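Many introductory courses stop at the sequence. We go one step further.
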Amino acid sequence: MIRFQTFLDFYIKSSIHVALSVYALVRMTHFMFQIPYDEPMALFAFFGTVVGYNFVKYDALARAKKNMMRKELKIIAIFSFFSFMAVGFYFFKLELVTQLVAVGVLIMTLLYTLPFFPNQKNARNWAGVKIYIVALCWVGVTLLLPLVNAHQDLGLDFFIKCIQRFVLVFNLILVFEIIDLTNDDPHLKTVPQQIGVKQTKILGLLLLLPFYFLEFLKTNFIQKQLVVNLILVVLLALFLVFANEKRSKYYSSFWVESIPILWWLMVILL
């Protein structure tokens, strides 16, 4: 049991789980727009997420040369290095225009992590901005990049999916912000800090309505997708309603981040 928990902790801390969520959303984009499996794009997103998230999480810790998590951090650093090599390999297999868009997403990630202006904090610490930057990065990586790489027209369906994908990620982050409420710096001004936990849950539940009903406006409408989306909405609503500061770390970092993976698996099965 202890070994399994150690493995699970490493699996989460090394960002493999969140990377699988991103991979699942890329595959969802392929399915929704009837794009054949694009391996370079999907694996670029997977390994890029590993590198990006580990950089965001451990950059300050590594630069400060703290002893906390020393052995584990070294293993994660080695894993991140090989992931970085994989990112470079798959990057050069993408279309030129996709590479340019990917660089734009990278700049957003760096802006989120590093302080670019003198005497200023990074965007991660800008009051109330974090949730929007993260959601936009996820939309860019899981929706825009796959479509650009497949030379798809960015028409009405694309904009509908942008809104839906943004709402999905926004709600996932809301659960994290509720659970981390007692530990977050008050200056971050997360959504629960600004409007309270109850109002945050109401906001998230209300946002699930356009997420679901926008599906009817698609030109390439698939009826079975309504069933899958309904299950997704119910699951996300339940996780949102039952979220609180006393929940286990696995509630958000494992179960909530599993929702995109489950969404993709439901599409495969149905």
